[in-house]
């Protein structure tokens, strides 16, 4: 375990303190978790960028051309609804406004 001294603006320190208290953890735990999340995000971004670079030379059309055409199995079929049917379905799920105040 290492000790690190950092300078934070007062507003950031107070916000961190408030959130740590709400989470029931110390400020040190909160900051450690925040740093771990940031490192994970940066590592993931770098990994995906490297994978994307390796995939640029792939001819996706040639790969897709190898897939034989056929109807999907019944359990794999998607039911496609028209945009108007979707809008009607959503409208039916919303509570109606009656104009009366309760």
Structural overview:
It is a single chain. The chain has 102 residues and is mainly alpha-helical. The chain has a domain at 8-68. Helices cover 59% and strands 0% of the residues. The protein has helices spanning 10-23, 27-55, 60-65, 83-93. α1 (10-23) crosses α2 (27-55). The chain starts with 9 loop residues before the first helix and ends in a 9-residue tail after the last helix.
Radius of gyration: 26 Å
Which secondary-structure class do the elements indicate? mainly alpha
Uncertain runs with pLDDT below 50, 5 residues or more?
A: none
From the N-terminal CA to the C-terminal CA, the straight-line distance is 59 Å
Which H/E pattern describes the elements?
HHHH
Mean pLDDT: 86
- Percent of residues in helices: 55-70%
Number of continuous helical runs: 4
Q: Find the count of extended strands (DSSP E, 2+ residues).
A: 0
The best one-word shape is: flat
Q: Please give the largest β-sheet.
A: none
Q: Determine the strand fraction and express it as a percent band.
A: under 5%
């Amino acid at each position: 375990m290492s000790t690190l001294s950092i300078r934070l603006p007062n507003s950031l320190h107070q916000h961190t303190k408030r959130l740590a208290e709400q989470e029931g953890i110390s400020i040190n735990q909160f900051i450690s978790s925040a740093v771990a999340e940031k490192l994970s995000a940066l590592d993931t971004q770098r990994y995906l960028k490297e994978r994307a670079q390796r995939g640029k030379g792939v001819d996706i059309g040639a790969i897709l051309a190898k897939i034989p055409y056929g109807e999907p199995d019944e359990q794999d079929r998607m039911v496609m609804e028209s945009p108007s049917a979707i809008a009607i379905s959503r409208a039916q799920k919303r509570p109606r406004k009656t104009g009366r105040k309760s």
